[in-house]
Amino acid sequence: MNPIKQPPPKLAELLLQLLQNAPQGLSEYELIQQLKQQHELDMPLHDPLDLFRSHFQVFNALYQLRDQLWAQQSATLHISALNICLLPYQAGSAELSEQDPLRSYYLDAEQLQVTTEQDVQDLLQSFYSQQPNRSERHAALEVFEMTDDPQLRYSQIKLRYRQLVSQHHPDRGGSTTRLQAINKAMEVLERYYQGN
Fold it and tell me: Which residues contact 147 (CB under 8 A, 6 or more apart)?
C-alpha cells in the first residue's frame, strides 16, 4: 500500500495563482499538470489510488479556497473537473451551499485516509457504467448548439466547449448561469463521447 502524502500547506494559494492567470478557467488535469511543472509538486498519477489521492488533495484545497473567497466576498470559485474558474463575487449566489455533498466530502480529510484501492476501483466502475441516455445527450448537444450527428467527434465537442466558455464567461460579459449550463452539458457529453 502506498503511503498517503499530506497536501502541500499552501496548495490553495498556488491554485489561486494559477486560476488568476487563467481567466477562462482550467480543467482539473491542466491544474495538476501546472502544479507539477511550475511548482514541482509531487502529485502522482500512476495508478488509480495515487490518482484519487492527488485529485482529493486538489479538490480539498479548491473547496477551502472557495469558502475563503466567499467569506472575503472577493470572488466565486466554480469547481468541476472540466472547468475550474474564478468568477466575480455575486452576493446571494446559490453557488456556495452548506448542503453541497461534494463540498462536505472533499472537506472531510478522513476520506483521504479511509479510501482504499478497491473503493477507487468501485468508483471508477460506477462512473464508467453511467452512460447518458439519448435524451440527455440530445439536450446537452442543444446547449452546445450542435446536432446529433453520428460523425461528431469528441475533439469537435471539446473545441466547441472552449469557444462557449470563452464567449459566455462572466469576465467577458457572459452569465454565470449560462456557464454552469455549459459545464453540465460538457460533463454529459464527455461521459458519452469519451466512452465511445
Answer: 141
